[in-house]
Hints:
By secondary structure, the chain is an all-alpha fold.
Amino acid sequence: MHCACFTTRNNSPPLQLEDAVRSMRHRLTSEAELSARTQRELEGDLKGAKRALLEVQAELRMAEKVISSDHNDGDQDCDCRDLPPPLPLLPQELEKKFSETGAYKNLKKMLSSKNEQIRELRTKVKKYEEEERGGAGEE
């Protein structure tokens, strides 16, 4: 139901404004849902990558133990000097390497773009709501 103060000869400007606000709210809601879904996917991918990293680190530690136990058993045929030193990767270094992957960069770029769209839509909705409130006071 429309306020009498919005009544005009053809009733179309208030209806158009209401439709525009409704449309913007719908777009804002769908963009927010998409952004949240993308965020959850990114977090899931990150957790999966960290889990895989921990598995690889565990395997590396086991391999180092096997190599060192073989060397300590007096195996003269093993020349450990030919082996490269173990590469301890700090969590910060691993995080940096992960953040340099193409998939991470693409997802981060997409998330940033969606967040920017949401900010723009919120601004537009706020503008329409202010116009709607401002027009309601006029008679």
